[in-house]
Amino acid sequence: MGLQRVAIPWTEKYRPRRVSEVVGNGEAVQAFLEWVRSWSSGRPAKKAALLHGPPGTGKTSLVIAFAEENGYDLVQLNASDRRSAEDIENLLGQAVRAASVFGRRRIVLIDEVDGLSTVADAGGVRAIASLIDRTEVPIVLVANDPWDPSLQELRSRCEMIGFRRLRAKEVLSRLEEICRREGVSVDREVLESIAERSRGDMRAAINDLQLVATSGSDPRRVLESIPNRVIELNAFELLGRIFGAHRFSDGRGTLANTDLDVDTVFTWVLDNLDQQIRDPQALHEAYKVLADADLHLRRATRLQRWELMKYGTILLSAGPGVIKATVAEKGGRFEFPARIRFMQQTKDVRTLADSILTKVNKRLHMSRAKAAVHFLPYLRLMLKAGDRGIARHFRLTEEEIGYLVSRAPELRVQPAEGRESAEERARPQAKARRAGTASGRLTVRSRA
Length: 448
Fold this sequence. Notes:
22 helices, Helicase, Ruva Protein, domain 3, Rossmann fold, 5-stranded parallel beta sheet, alpha/beta, single chain
């Protein structure tokens, strides 16, 4: 019996071989090409690029096509398969050197970096960050959703290049081209349905087309058997939906299509509100809508009356967009919320502070708040004086000692007015300065 010919998946057979064959996202493609060219003209501003956006939009295909077309050696790794720091270093440590054995240029592609989004994968994230810091060749990271806090270390090192979902007409055009090249006939109505159902995912559309064209059954019945795809919206896509709403009915189900919790969505919307709505009166109304949304959401949580959530979520998911539509404002670009960015940047500091307070709490049996105000200033003074015995008593690490000696004021809770902190009581000169300041306040407030 002869060998049976294995059908090549059309997604691989018709993967772009040249950059010009990549469908849609022209601005993102151009940004990527400009970033790669910056390597040829000298040291680039960012040594890595992070291509991010929904699946099936051509992120990985663009890098592969560029490498093939321009004679680059491509070193590719799927980060969701190799998560440990040791694996990443062993596989890519040599690849980030300047040139291959034969002197060819090289580009490194790390796919699915958003697969490294758990605490256990932190070593992998740090290993990739280390590769970026010392690389002599372009490194390209690819992710569907790069906004997980654990990936902040990578985002700060990368040129961020965003890809949008493909338009249905862009997908349809590619499907028609594949049909011509395969010599198959599929009704345009079926192709349009495939394009619409793909939700901008070219890979999914081509898979559906291959199934329909090769099944030997009625295309419409085959298409009906394929489950509808549910779109998982990332934060920026979600903001687009919220601020793009023209009616309150547009907001129904919006928050159901994201894994972000309501509080996080609220923070994103609130921080971007004044960039999307500039008219003072409209902005005032939008803030009132968000205040009402917050009232309903808090009340539902506090009273455990979850039926009230729908009133808050509909105001949050459509209210800002409806108000924006009334003044026909275009709005600016969406920004990462300052509060979330600050929390990410201070995560390590807060982890150290939490660890120190936990150790003090267990040893002294006092509340963490009281320890921060009444004990840590003394502990800091003792450590600055070189008392290592106290460090051993509380089992403090070198990192925790260094933090207390150099940055401990960040950890201290501000005392109420009129109450001295423990550290100030230990320093007469600080006490004198405080008394002088207080005296000044009394003079200002006194009545003649």
